[in-house]
Amino acid sequence: MNPRVRRTESARLQMQLGPRLLILLAPICLVGALASVSSAGQLDRFYPATYAPALSDTTGALVVRPARGDTVQVDIILGEAGGRLSGRVVGPSDEGDPPVGGVIVDAESGAIHVEARTDADGRFEFPALPSGEVSVRIRTDHPHTSGRQYAAEALAPIQVPEGGTAELGDISLHAGGRLRGSVVEALGGSPVLDVQVEAVTESGVVAAVHPPDPTGRFVIGGLEPGSYTVRVAPEEGSRYLTEVLGGGRALDGAEFVLLAGGEEAQLEPIELDLGSEIGGRITTGGLNLVGTPVELRTVDGGDTRTVESADFGFYTFVGVPAGTYVVYVPALRLFYPDATRESEARHLVVGEGDVFTRVDVDGATQEGCPLPPSQRGVVTGFVELDMEQVVSAKLRMTSEADTLEMPLESDQFYTFECIPAGSYRIALLTDGPFLPQYHRKVEDPSRATVFEVDADTTDSVDFEPVRGVTVEGWVRASGGEPVEGAIVRLFDTTLHEVASVLTDGDGRYTIDRTPERWGIEAGSFYVRVDSLFVPGPDLTPVSLPRLAAEPEAPGLVRLTIDLPIAPATIQVERSTDGFGGAEAPVLVLQEDVGGGDGARVSRTDAPVPGVPVWYRLTADDGAQEWTVLAGPVVAPRIAGGLSLQVAPSPWLGTGQVRIALSGRGALGVTGEADGDGRLRLFDVSGRWVAQIPLDPDVSTAVLWSPRDRSGRPLSSGVYYLRWSDPLGRELALSRWLVLR
Q1: What pTM does this model have?
Q2: ∠ CA(497), CA(499), CA(503), 5° rounding?
Q3: CATH for 276-351, among 3.10.20.310, 3.40.50.300, 3.40.50.2000, 2.60.40.10?
Q4: Integer Rg of the chain from CA
Q5: What mean pLDDT do residues 87-99 have?
Q6: How far apart are the C-alpha atoms of 416 and 383, rounded to whole Å?
Q7: With respect to CATH, is domain 6-58+69-172 assigned 2.60.40.10?
Q8: Superfamily of the domain at 177-260
Q9: pLDDT one-digit tens code per residue, 329-342
């Protein structure tokens, strides 16, 4: 199997047993390349950095000198180089030097970063690495590794010989420490998943970062003996605030735990508080603005958060920490409530758990422009541009006080309205091969004509952009095969990088724009392919073992297991308490799965209809054991004819709301299982806001006094009331508007 290799801006480790590799090439990372190496096939290859046509440095390298509008072909042939590195990871000698399988081993040489996984005998091998000094680290502190009872180990730099093998022999690990705990909501105790759990030393160094599992639990191992605290950092968009062990937001005052070698500390659950919420509505000239970016800026110049307005112009920021903020709408060039300058904006002093509603911004003029006629002007003109050759195009106007942009939809006349009076430079910028052009049709910004936008006047500016240069070609190995995913860089003669791209599946590349997304000016250039680690054709990218549990039919659940670590022994258990209580789980499936390229196993289970259940997959091939959870899932009997109505809508903030449920008696499951919170309220971002209990004795309607899950009043905005069956399938949905 010859896999396609994907490169992304970040690397996410994926698991598989046996000698496995994950290749990371800074600044671009290769994902999904943990794979087994076939001894009968071609091994991985390392290619050192190469200048066109096939040289190791600029001495004698090709220099291309295209003029504006030219396209030049530059092909590069890569030669293999480097050496091999192998070794074996074992436990302490006082334990009998046991082999440690399933451990991740890092190897770094400059920009090349490769990760291998030890096999059942503890052996690992890097088939191709740059020759010279290589740093090696045994990563027992990695989230997806085995051997967490041992401390991570960094070896002295290793010399890898060109064309040879560096054999490290047995690498002995010593006992380390582990931190075990869980992350839950402070209100309600539900597990929290959208966070990262950090083990931090007394000096403030982050020793390891792990995500919690689907139940909110975590185990951080591979730690050197010493004192540690835990910091839980919410991911972007989370509703929660940062929390450290012992309470608090910062490391100052955090509780530390002293770990001895071989010791495991069981921590109290870390309870996360909800951050504050800030919401409002964006309008102009009496119209709702939907999809408009809204910025929340800290007054002290810290981070800026951005969301987009949704239905009816409503927006909401969640998980806001304590601080002082201003709200800004770039499209209106207005700060809340109606200020054109930040110094005049109203400050929002936010504590913890606060809710700010009706933080509305309105560009309230009849013409949709917040500036009075005495303070604004208009610029018009014609753009001669083939829009089919670009992804997008925009006009940018810059003065000492403002930077204004307007997207272009066609190569025709444009009108740039509502411009504050002042002195401007105006440029046409494209996401394509055309050079930036400034008024009056010049490409050099220092030669741009500065013009005045006068109050209540109209100026005319035309553009006719020209194409820059294009460098294209292919990258091939010495045997003639195309090389996919190689980084091709364009340098000027001072070795300043101008642009870079990745080769496609045929080894081809095209460089016609800079990182700013517009064309390249004429000049003299070198073309270089960076050092590259390429998986051979026998490497198969794999993913984590997965377990899916879906309703199959009345009384049945379909279990689907994707098992890239075959051959292995698998076991599936069922529980009605999420495997977190005293109830003994029920064994559903146990079998040996053969094959070396992974496998898919599909089986059905028959749990009690109407009762939520969880499933746990355990997969073991003798070197490491993985556990994957799925659920809750229910096997109900459902009939049709269901509907949901909410009144009044809009609700103005006083009195109760009546929720009519038509056809509820058609449900095959009634009583407590049905009434256990299957009527839920969500905001437009999909965030679960409230849960409305269903009385099993009342089948026609529910009366509700609207509050969110924390007991706070609802903010103004658009909400969706979702009625679902016990396994979470949607029965009916109704949109509801709140105007306070």
Answers
A1: 0.59
A2: 120
A3: 2.60.40.10
A4: 31
A5: 93
A6: 13
A7: yes
A8: Immunoglobulins (2.60.40.10)
A9: 987 889 999 888 88
